[in-house]
Specification:
Layout (H helix, E strand, L loop, with lengths): L2 H10 L3 H13 L4 H20 L5 H22 L8 E7 L7 H12 L2 E5 L6 H10 L3 E7 L6 H12 L8 E5 L5 H7 L3 E2 L3 H12 L1
Parallel strand pairs: 1-2, 1-3, 3-4, 4-5
Bound molecules: CO-5-methoxybenzimidazolylcobamide (B1M).
Amino acid sequence: MSKLAEVVDLVERGKSKLVGAAVQGALDEGTPATEILNGMIDAMAVVGERFKNNEIFVPEMLVAARAMKKGVEVLKPHLASGSTATNGKVIIGTVAGDLHDIGKNLVSMMIESAGFEVTDLGVDVAPEKFVEAVKADPEVKIVCLSALLTTTMPAMKTTVEALSAQDFRGSIKIMVGGAPITQAFADEIGADAYTADAASAAQKAKELAA
Ligand code: B1M
């Protein structure tokens, strides 16, 4: 089994203690960091499919998530471009009611490495918290919202509405994303941009801040 295949297998099985060494092994074999990341993302999709089919349950999803986080820790220095540019300030969070943070953390990491200063409000973030965070720092240029559940898509809408009701709306851009989010939904709720993955989120942030 190649080291990359081992990483994928370990994430699927939630073996967080072993993943770090396997990721390092894959890097040592010359596997590009993005390929390893994509392998781990695919592993999480497999985990999600098994959950949907009732083959595994929430605890198994949780350990797989922990394993992926361990892998990303080792990968992080190899993914970040180390850009020293200062493109501005970004606030990011997962919307109210939603505890998924792996995708949000990847978006945060990629945007940071694209030269932004990122404040991560965490998960289950109420609309008012996003509003307060922007009010507290007039230099914020972009607010990034992540949602992984169809049931928390309305919270994303409410958050965009809360931000749009503020005087500062004209000076910030709102970016949205997450597995159930689409361009059509982003348009419907009045977000400025939707991107499907972390790398394109970083690219879009640069465009919006230019
Ligand atoms: Co949950 N979960 N989960 N879960 N979970 C999903 C999302 C699900 C699709 C699984 C399934 O049924 N197939 C399903 C949602 C179904 C739906 O809404 N239609 C689901 C469910 C149902 C639930 C619970 C309700 C289960 C329960 O309790 N009965 C529960 C809800 C808890 C809550 O949030 N209130 C729950 C709980 C959990 C855990 C806590 C156990 C764990 C999360 C741990 C954590 O994040 N720390 C978990 C996990 C791990 C998953 C799956 C398996 C993996 C998610 C993940 O990390 N993927 C997931 C299945 C799946 O996604 N196929 C599933 C990897 C990650 C890199 O991808 O987050 O999509 P993702 O991010 C991508 C893009 O979406 C994008 O960039 C990333 C890639 O580059 N992106 C953005 C994300 N945010 C962005 C923002 C942007 C731009 C792009 O701009 C701002």
